[in-house]
Write a structure and sequence with these properties.
With 168 residues, the chain is of the alpha+beta class. The chain has helices at 3-12, 50-57, 87-102, 111-120, 152-156; strands at residues 15-20, 28-33, 35-37, 40-46, 60-66, 74-84, 123-136, 159-161. The radius of gyration is 18 Å and the shape is globular.
């Protein structure tokens, strides 16, 4: 994928695995929905969750943006993250994520419930600003007998692009 295709891939999908450093153990990963703000990716979480606490310690995160069809493809996005606490923005992001999860725009009558949930759960926004991507094309095997016909390097080949999704 070239830079434009990588950007479009991120824009066309909605779920990713958020990876972040833990204090004492290996990295933690969490499946999350995201929405965009320009070229930044926004994720809703609770202020007391390990995601927010870890980002406060170390803002370097990774996002494995998932294709939602088989064979599974993905794009690894490396980003700098910040925690944003503006309540109106938090509600807006949560509403947009709720719309994604529901597959349709929620009626305006649900906005007070979303606001209450954001307040009760002390929700914040993770803003991820991409700086690099890494892509491994999916391997396509049409049947079990083809697995030995693909060269090992084709199964392992990775493309690295040291560029931001948004920069060009």
């Amino acid at each position: 994928m070239n830079q434009s295709e990588r950007r479009q891939y991120v824009f066309d999908h909605r779920t990713c695995i958020l990876g972040y450093s833990r204090k004492n153990d290996g990295p933690s990963m969490s499946v999350v929905y995201y929405v965009r703000d320009g070229d930044d990716l926004l994720i809703s979480t609770m202020a007391g969750r390990s995601k927010a606490l870890a980002i406060a310690r170390n803002p370097k995160i990774s996002l494995c943006v998932l294709d939602e069809k088989w064979p599974l493809g993905y794009l690894q996005v490396y980003a700098n993250a910040v925690i944003e606490t503006d309540f109106d923005q938090t509600v807006d992001v949560m509403r947009r994520i709720t719309d994604l999860m529901a597959g349709e725009r929620m009626p305006d009558s649900k906005l007070p419930a979303i606001e209450a949930m954001c307040r009760e759960e002390n929700r914040v926004v993770i803003r991820a600003t991409p700086y690099s991507t890494f892509q491994t094309p999916p391997s396509r095997l049409h049947s079990r007998r083809h697995r030995h016909s693909l060269p090992h390097h084709q199964l392992q080949r990775s493309l690295v692009a040291h560029m931001a999704i948004a920069r060009g």
